[in-house]
Amino acid sequence: MCGCGDRHGEIMRSLGDKMGGYVPETLKAIYDHRPELMELIERLDRVLLEDGALDKKTKRLIALACVITRMCEDCVYPQAKVAVNYGATKDEILETLEICMITGGVPTFSIAKNGISRLFKEMEE
């Protein structure tokens, strides 16, 4: 993570800690190019990072389904990784993918396959 001592770097480190020690590449790129956006992201992500009526694992599985159905290939691995960091199992990830295929069609599997395969390889190590 960022070794910076500024407020925006602190936000990025804090978000990474709350996501199980993982900082997505997109978040790092935002920090590198528009660090002031870290404050907005921190406010927006609060709903995903804390338990509420839904626990944060369930929220991440919903977020995973959303990014898959929205066809954001680069978003799949980060959402799935954080879901696993929050306790999601391989079966829960696969069931989420099945829901995406029902609601978004078979192309959602094509979008998800690389990110999910990468994550499952890590889980086996």
UniProtKB/TrEMBL annotation:
Gene3D superfamilies cross-referenced by the UniProt entry: AhpD-like (1.20.1290.10)
InterPro entries for this protein: AhpD-like, CMD-like
The protein, known as: Carboxymuconolactone decarboxylase
Gene Ontology MF term list: peroxiredoxin activity
Pfam families reported in the protein's UniProt record: CMD
Domain Carboxymuconolactone decarboxylase-like residues, every copy: 35-109
Organism: Methanothrix thermoacetophila (strain DSM 6194 / JCM 14653 / NBRC 101360 / PT)
